[in-house]
Design a protein that fits this description.
Number of helices: 2
Number of domains: 1
Shape: rod-shaped
Largest sheet: none
Order of helices and strands: HH
Helix content: over 70%
Structural class: mainly alpha
Amino acid sequence: MNKFLIGLCSLTVGIGAGIVAGILIAPKSGVETRAELKEKLDSAYENGRNKMGEIVDKSKDVIEKGKSAIEKGKNAMKKSDTTEEEA
């Protein structure tokens, strides 16, 4: 998972740098270029926030499933101990 996040961050930074370079090199006035750059950066920021929210939500789901599995395992062990004591 850690390698995935590093790769995702690297990809995002690379795409962002490419967009910024492309916009700055484009033959437009400074005002138009800055407006377009701001729009693109705002969009990228929102997309990043949305993706991070999705990752957090999925992580919470995984954690809850893990907790549930641990609790089931504990209950199964208690039940097993009880049946062994009765035998």
